[in-house]
């Protein structure tokens, strides 16, 4: 698993809104990346709702929130629409990013792990 002090592995994934997102495109800003196992499950729904409640406060301070799971873009889109998610949910359908971060389970889903990335691209938590 990626640890504190390491450079966060860069990635490029499709967002629920159809936009392509590259982590390095957020250099100069704080980024919260949370991996979650599966959209529409109780724990993942609650986690996403909690991030959604805090999203306005995060964005007021310029903090970017990115949710990542191995669900498809279509599933992420439906999940975001149903729960009125204002930040980007990204599809790691091949599990490549989850694997880079060391959070891919043998089941092919991501573990529930959150990383905080500083403006220089290093994992601080």
How would you describe the overall organization of this protein?
With 125 residues, this protein is of the alpha/beta class. The longest helix has 19 residues. β1 and β2 form a beta hairpin. It contains 3 helices and 6 strands, in the order βββαβαβαβ. Strands 2-1-5-4-3-6 form a 6-stranded mixed beta sheet, with helices on one face. Helix content is 27%, strand content 22%.
Helix-strand blueprint:
Elements: E1 12-15, E2 20-22, E3 31-35, H1 42-60, E4 64-69, H2 73-82, E5 88-91, H3 96-100, E6 113-117
Parallel strand pairs: 3-4, 4-5
Antiparallel strand pairs: 1-2, 1-5, 3-6
Could you say which overall geometry the principal axes of the C-alpha atoms support? globular
Order of helices and strands: EEEHEHEHE
Give the helix tally.
Answer: 3
DSSP E strands, number: 6
Q: Average pLDDT across residues?
A: 97
What labels would you give this structure?
125 residues; globular; 22% strand; 3 helices; alpha/beta; 27% helix
Short structural description:
This protein is 27% helix and 22% strand.
